[in-house]
Amino acid sequence: MEYPVLSSVFYQREDVVQISKDLLGKYLVTEFDGQLTAGKIVETEAYRGPDDKACHAWNNRFTDRTRVMYETGGVAYVYLCYGMHHLFNVVTGPKGMAHAVLIRAIEPIHNVETMQLRRNMTALKPKLTAGPGALSQALGIKTAFNGVSLMDLASPIRIEDRGEVVAESDILAGPRVGVESAGECALWPWRFVVKGSVWVSKFRK
DNA sequence: AAGAGGATGAACT
DNA sequence: GTTCATCCTCTTG
Asked: Which residues have a Cβ under 8 Å from the Cβ of A145 and sit 6 or more positions away?
């Protein structure tokens, strides 16, 4: 069974908030070392370089780490958080625009046993893939994937469109998680979840 | 050259 | 609700 990957047209749009919503219901797939794992995206957050204080590339800050965010939309931005969690983002927008979408939760679909093994979990629970660090561990996403294309079948990671559409009425918006120090931007409702999904992460206090 | 802190998760009480 | 693991990146001197 082959599914089309999301196109460069999808990623290169300038409205990162819209792309965040559009990514809900798409399938995040990793394939390397002969292992294919995949899940449906159910939670995302938008980060907008120029004017978003919570974004690493706020005020167009350009460093070794943020460099990949300025690439043409459609590549991965993976970075290490708290010294142990690999957080996966989708770079969006045209070249030179530092926008990205953080994938925060997926519904495990394919090769769930491998995900459980990677997470060292015996029972199938939402905790398996709820939260950006958790889903990355389950899918085997690591900082080595930073900068790779999401549109290439030869790439270890890609996003597929399996024809599922999440209606606007099925999307819940709220403030982003873990960005309290970002001033006013912390209140922007740029976290999106699929209404009713049990696979989304919990709000952090 | 050195130090502070982070888009988190798990294991505690 | 609280603590802490753990290391890379960025800022400052």
From this structure: A76, A78, A88, A156, A157
Over residues A141-152, the pLDDT tens digits come to 999 999 999 999
Go through A116-138 and write b for each residue having 16 or more CB atoms within 10 A of its CB, e for each that does not. bebbeeeeeebebbbbbbbbbbb
The confidence score (pLDDT) of residue A176 equals 96
Query: Can you give the distance from the CA of residue A145 to the C1' of nucleotide B2 in angstroms?
Result: 30
Cut 0.85: pTM above it: yes
DSSP state, A156?
A: S
- Look-up of token digits 């082959």: A2
Do A61 and A39 touch, CB atoms closer than 8 A? no
3-state secondary structure of A25: coil
List the helix and strand counts (H, then E) for chain A.
4, 8
Reported in sequence order, the residue ranges of chain A that DSSP labels E, i.e. its strands, are 27-32, 35-48, 76-81, 85-92, 99-110, 157-160, 171-174, 191-194
> Is strand B in 7 Å reach of the CB of A103?
no
What chain A holds in terms of domains, given with CATH numbers, is: 8-194 (3.10.300.10)
Strand C close to A146 by CB, under 7 A: no
The CA-based angle A97-A171-A169, given to 5 degrees, is: 125
